[in-house]
Amino acid sequence: MKPIARRSFLINTLKIGAVLPLTGIPFSLLADSPEETKSARQENKGSKEENISNKYKATATPDRLILTLTEDPSTSMTINWRTADTAGENFVEYTVADAHPVFVNKVQQEKAVGRNFHFESIMAKNHSITLKGLLPATVYSYRVGAENDWSEWMQFRTAEKSGAQAKISFIYLGDAQVGIRPLWSRVIRKAYAANPDASLVIHAGDLVNRANKDEEWGDWFAAGSFIHSTIPALVTPGNHEYTHEDGKPHLSVYWKEQFQLPANGPANPLLAGSCYYADIQGVRFISLNTQMLEEAQTQDCITHQVEWLHQVLKSNPRGWTCVTMHHPVFSTKGVGITSR
């Protein structure tokens, strides 16, 4: 499928357009340091650049805690976090929240799935668990960890009962990418301050600048802080979540390890963890991987995503549909200009 045909597909299927220009911001304000400024001007180097920073070294205490959407957030929630690779089994403790200093409701404990993560000099363990059988429209308190190494107690609210035509609001963020600590931290915190009761946060690609740079992922998690662990995220990859060390596109080694997402997408390994949907209070939210429309190595990869999307739209019982993707249907870029 040629680029023009791909644009036509998106236009005819979604009937929407999006132009989100960013103008008038000096590049020097976007970078944390001269090193970041220099790297941001280069193409994403991926795994060829070794991670040597200990700025965000994993410890026994959980960090990079984030909630991610399930197919039905009214009765389930996925929790993801990281520890040192030497940490043993980790757990989640949770209960229906109340105002009493000591929890009145019974605290339940469940064991998480732990996966060792070794990449270049980075050694950590990623943990995840999906809590099921939760009550709709209910606030839960939870913490993650083990023994003396627990996170603080956090809270989240489940969505209204599936199919409910209840009021819904969400936060949309795109291209954190560069200047994550000095600038994007303020953006996401201001968005949260304006809409603290949001049902989800959509991150529409280019969360970081270099797909496999641990320090940039550390900045992203630090900038979002407790927001990541209180409002579930819908994350969609952009071109900067991909590397091309062998000339082919490869999704960041961090993506599927730190984001456990609904497995209701196309039956194609290149699209797993990037194409999926979730139904929230009368709205079907769909994540598309437009990078795999732009850089698909085979026609099958494109066909699988196109046919899946048509089926998800055709069988949608919800009154509203919201589709998120990294690339706009219409672009302000001139012909022949290469995206960075």
Blueprint of the fold:
Layout: H1 3-14, H2 34-40, E1 63-68, E2 77-84, E3 91-96, E4 108-111, E5 113-119, E6 122-131, E7 139-146, E8 149-150, E9 154-157, E10 170-173, H3 180-194, E11 200-204, H4 214-224, E12 233-236, E13 242-243, E14 250-251, H5 255-258, E15 276-280, E16 283-287, H6 291-294, H7 299-314, E17 320-324
Parallel strand pairs: 10-11, 11-12, 16-17
Antiparallel strand pairs: 1-2, 2-6, 3-4, 3-7, 5-6, 7-8, 7-9, 13-14, 15-16
Helix pairs in contact: 3-4
Number-wise, the strands total 17
- Rg for CA atoms: 20 Å
Overall mean confidence score, pLDDT: 86
Question: Into which percent range does the helicity of residues fall?
Answer: 10-25%
Strand content: 25-35%
Largest pleated sheet: 5 strands, antiparallel
Shape: globular
Specify the CATH architecture of one domain. Answer: Sandwich
The CATH H-level homologous superfamily of one domain: Purple acid phosphatase-like, N-terminal
SSE pattern, N- to C-terminal: HHEEEEEEEEEEHEHEEEHEEHHE
CATH uppermost class of one domain: Mainly Beta
Oligomer: single chain
Structural class of the secondary structure composition?
A: alpha+beta
Distance between the termini: 22 Å
Could you list some keywords that capture this structure?
340 residues; alpha+beta; Immunoglobulin-like; 5-stranded antiparallel β-sheet; 4-stranded antiparallel β-sheet; 17 strands
Question: Would you mind describing this structure in some detail?
Answer:
The protein is globular, with a radius of gyration of 20 Å. Helix content is 20%, strand content 26%. A hairpin with an 8-residue loop joins strand 1 and strand 2. The chain has 340 residues and is α+β, with helices and mostly antiparallel strands. It has a domain at 58-263: Immunoglobulin-like (Sandwich), CATH 2.60.40. The two termini are 22 Å apart. It has 7 helices and 17 strands.
